[in-house]
Design brief:
By secondary structure, this protein is an alpha/beta fold. The protein has helices spanning 8-19, 51-69, 81-90, 102-110, 119-122, 163-168, 182-189, 202-209, 222-230, 241-249, 277-287, 290-299, 336-355; strands at 44-47, 73-76, 97-101, 133-134, 137-150, 173-176, 216-219, 236-240, 254-269, 303-304, 332-333. Helix content is 38%, strand content 17%.
Length: 356
């Protein structure tokens, strides 16, 4: 059967119709875009994540950009290295801005997949965290994986306090069904200091995980990890911190520790071949604006990349974020470069262990 090529315009129509997502109010109206005349006027396709994170990004970042500039933004999910590479390789680039994990950013740099940023347009260069203003990417938000538990089983005094406890406490536990992050906390639980965590000793990590493998439920996505906790199907687990904190807000009887939380960050990038480069630069500038980031991090539990953003948050909010001055010393920053260089081989070894 002959395959029909999906054009950018048909993609936008299908994406908007299927997802019903458009930044700003009113119905989606896509006007014909003819060549370069329509370039840099939008709409921008922004590939980010779904769930509460995506909803917060919509409300506190995307909508305000549309209101400010009049440039429409269509939000879609989910960013992966394979999809970005395939788009650039085929010349069929349907995403204009990608909210890419740092490991994806580092892999893409090696293959020349991204458009260089014009920092005179993006701005805020001196306001971002160290290493946050790079030639092909702007640091966005900082996210975290924490050790959480159900309150019916534990409280702050009796609950697990570190990854060693995760490996040694009796009962059912949960973690990601991937090597990424699972290998890190296994090594931390086996006594490896965070300063000596990388390069990861994968075999040591798998050996340490093997005794608790039968008592572990491996989750495939964030929603599943939260559901396992709230349903009390597991007693404790390694889960995404932002969703855990949002879930606690709703009154669910779960809690967590900041100790040894694994922290990573996203970079905003423009895939090579986007026809909305100038508009995308403006959008990235808006995303890293301190007031915008302050609003986002005041309503969702992820740390800002713009250091001035803390001044746009309520007093004490920084103590609830992984990049807050009191919290950050307790955390462990993941080495994205290690994963960029080794992810395929480590993932393959982890899959072998999972099926053994």
């Amino acid at each position: 059967m002959e395959k029909r090529k999906i054009t950018r315009r048909s993609f936008l129509k299908r994406g908007a119709a299927a997802m019903g997502i458009l930044a700003g109010s009113g119905p989606l109206i896509l006007l014909p875009r003819k060549g370069q005349a329509a370039a840099d006027k939008g709409p921008i396709v922004f590939c980010t994540y779904g769930g509460p994170y995506g909803d917060s990004m919509q409300q506190f970042v995307i909508d305000s950009f549309v209101k400010k500039t009049g440039i429409q933004v269509i939000r879609t999910a989910t960013p992966t290295f394979a999809k970005v590479k395939a788009m650039v390789d085929t010349g069929n680039v349907e995403w204009d801005v990608v909210d890419a994990e740092e490991r994806v950013y580092q892999r893409g740099i090696k293959l020349n997949l991204f458009t260089s940023l014009d920092w005179t347009v993006v701005g805020h260069k001196d306001e971002l965290v160290s290493g946050g203003a790079l030639p092909f990417g702007a640091a966005n938000v900082f996210f975290h994986i924490v050790l959480a538990w159900h309150k019916k089983k534990y409280n702050r005094e009796t609950g697990p306090k570190n990854w060693k406890d995760f490996l040694e406490f009796p009962g059912k536990r949960a973690t990601r069904n991937e090597a990424y992050e699972t290998v890190e906390f296994a090594l931390l639980g086996d006594g490896v200091p965070k300063e000596k965590l990388y390069p990861l000793d994968v075999e040591r990590a798998l050996k340490r995980l093997t005794p608790v493998k039968k008592d572990t439920i491996f989750w495939a996505n964030t929603k599943m990890s939260i559901d396992l906790l709230t349903s009390n199907e597991v007693d404790f687990g390694a889960v995404a911190g932002g969703p855990v904190q949002k879930t606690i807000e709703t009154g669910e009887p779960i809690d967590f520790t900041w100790n040894q939380a694994l922290v990573g960050n996203d970079f905003l990038i423009i895939p090579k071949g986007s026809k909305q480069v100038e508009a995308s630069m403006k959008f990235i500038s808006h995303c890293v604006d301190p007031e915008v980031q302050g609003a986002f991090s005041s309503n969702y539990y992820m740390g800002p990349s713009n250091l001035k953003a803390f001044s746009f948050m309520p007093k004490g909010r920084e103590d609830l974020l992984c990049t807050g001055p009191k919290v950050q010393p307790l955390t462990v920053k993941k080495d994205a470069m290690f994963w960029a260089e080794n992810e395929e081989i480590v993932a393959k070894r982890f899959e072998q262990w999972m099926t053994s």
